[in-house]
Amino acid sequence: MDTLHYNTGDMILTINYPIDESGHYCIETEDDTELGHLYIDDFDEHHHTPVWKGTTEEVNIIAAELGEFIERSDL
């Protein structure tokens, strides 16, 4: 499974590439605790950017930040 590691300043999160057609990235903490999933919910036509959402409050709060990180990566 392809992964990225993202430093929030408080912890390191692991972003796991989707393993199925859902397109959901699984977000985990350093101790492999699943926080939730990240996915593209919509596309902002005005800014020409995807709108990222999380399946849990913890992930949704930083969804845009994580999504931009994924977009800049080679994952």
Automatic annotation (TrEMBL):
Protein name per Swiss-Prot or TrEMBL: Uncharacterized protein
Annotated source species: Pedobacter westerhofensis
Record lineage: Bacteria, Pseudomonadati, Bacteroidota, Sphingobacteriia, Sphingobacteriales
